[in-house]
Design brief:
The chain is mainly alpha-helical. The chain is about 75% helix and about 0% strand.
Length: about 575
Amino acid sequence: MAMVGQSLYPIAVLIDELKNEEIPLRLNSIRKLSTIARALGEERTRKELIPFLSENNDDEDEVLQAMAEELGVFVPYVGGVEHAHVLLPPLETLATVEETCVRDKAVELLCLIGAQMKEKDIVDYFVPVVTRLASGEWFTARVSSCGLFHVAYPSAADQLKAELRIVYGHLCQDDMPMVRRAAASNLGKFAATVEQSHLKKEIVSIFDNLTQDDQDSVRLLAVEGCAALGKLLEPQDCVAHILPVIVNFSQDKSWRVRYMVANQLYELCEAAGPEPTRADLVPAYVRLLRDNEAEVWIAAAGKVTKFCRILRPQVAIQHILPCVKELSSDSSQHVRSALASVIMGMAPVLGKDATIEQLLPIFLSLLKDEFPDVRLNIISKLDEVNQVIGIDLLSQSLLPAIVELAEDRHWRVRLAIIEYIPLLARQLGVGFFDDKLGALCMQWLEDKVFSIREAAANNLKRLAEEFGPEWAMQHIIPQVLEKINNPHYHSASHLIASPCHGPRDNVVVNSSKERVPNIKFNVAKVLQSLVPILDQSLTEKTLKPCLVELSEDPDVDVRYYAKQALQACDQIMVSS
C-alpha cells in the first residue's frame, strides 16, 4: 500500500498545484508535465494524465499555452507514434478556446503530431477531430479546423476526401468573417494536397467565392492564395481563372487588397508566364504604381526590378520607366526610399544605353535626396550599375554628386556621406578609391565640427580594416603624422585601434603631454588597446611610465582611464 501511495504522489501534487489560486504555481506544475509523465510511465500517462488534462482546461491563457507547448513533445511519453492519437483530445479542446495565441499553438501542434501519425490513425482519429471542429457551434473551433485539412486530406479515402472538400467549401461560406478569413488563409496549403482533377473544378470555385467576399479582410487573404493556387494549376488554367481575379483586385475598392496585390504580383507573374504578364499584368502593375494610397505605391515600387526582369527591355522602358520617374520625385520619403532600394537593379535589365540615358538622371536625383535612407539605398547598390556602365562612366556621372555632398554646408549631410565611404570603397576598389576619394577622407579630419572629425577618424579605421595594414601604413599613417600639429589632430587617436602597426605607439605617448584632458584620457584608452598586441618589454619601457604619469593627472577622467590601462598591463604580466 505504501508503494502504491508513493506512486500516486506525483499526480496528486499536479492536481493540487493545478487548482492553486496562484498562476505561477499552476504554470510550474504544467511545465513539469514531462517529468510527471516519466514518473507515471507510458500507460498511466495515457489513461490518467492525458484525460485529466483534457478535462481541466478552464484556466488562464498563459497556462493553457504552456500546456499546449508541453503536449507538443509528449509523443515519446505516451508510447510513441502508435499512441500519438491520445494527445489529440486535449489539443482539440485547446483549439476551441477564445484566445488566438492558444488556438494557434494548438493547431500548430495538432499538425505536428498528425504528420507523425500512421495513415490508419489519421483516418480513425485525426479526421474526426477535423470534422468535429469544422462543425463546432462556437466559431473558434471552425477557425482552428481550417488549418488542419491539409494534414487530414492526403490519408483519407476517396469518399472521405470528397466530404472534406465539401466541408471546406462550407467553411469558406461561413456566416462568421473570422472563419472565412481562416479558410482563405489556409486555402493554398489545402489546395496543394488536392488532386489536379478536383483542383480545377472545386477548389477554383471555392477561390472564386472568396474573391467576391464583401469583407476586404477576406479578399486580401484570398490574394495570398492567388500565387499559390496559380502555381498548382496548368499555365492555361492559371491565365483563365487566376489572372482575371488579380486584374480585378488591382482595382479593388479597398487599398489593403490593392496593397496585397502589389506584394504578390511578381509571384503571380512567374506562375502565369511572360506573355500573359505583358498583355494583362503590366497595365495592372502601372495602375498600382500610380495608386492613390502611398502604401500601395511603396509595395509596388519595391517590386519594380523583379517585375522588369520578366519583361522585354523595350516594354519596361515604355510602360514602367515613366512611373519610376514619377515616383523618384514623389513627396513621400518612404516611396523614394523603397524605389531607391531596388532601382539600381534595373540597370542590368535595361542595358547600358538605356541605363545611361534613362536611369542615371534618376540615380542622381535620388543621390541628392534630403533623406539619408534614400541616399544610402542608392550608394549601397552602386556595384550593380558599375557592372553595366563601367567604373569610368560611373565616376564621371555619380561621383561628382557624392563629392558635392561630402562638402555640403549641413554637417549632418557630410556625416551621412562619411558613413557611406567604406561601402563605396568596397565596391570601387583600392585603386579607384585612392585616386578619387582618398584626399577627401583626410580633409574631413580638419572639419570644424567634432562629430565629423570623429566620424572621419573612425572611417579611416574601417578603411584600414578593408584594405589591410600595408595600405594603411602607406596612405594613412604618414598623413596622420603630418596633421599632428593641426588643432583638431586628436581625433586621429581613434585610428590607433585599426589593424596597422608602426610608429603609432610613439605618436600616442607624445600626445599624452598635451594639456587638454580629452586628449589625455583618449591616449589612456588607446594605450590600453595596445597592451595585448605590443611586446611586454615595450609595454614596460614605454607604455607603463606614460600611464603612471597619467594616473596622477589632476583630471578625474584621465586618472580613471589611466588606472584601467595599468590594470590591463598587470593582468597581461600575470597571465604571461
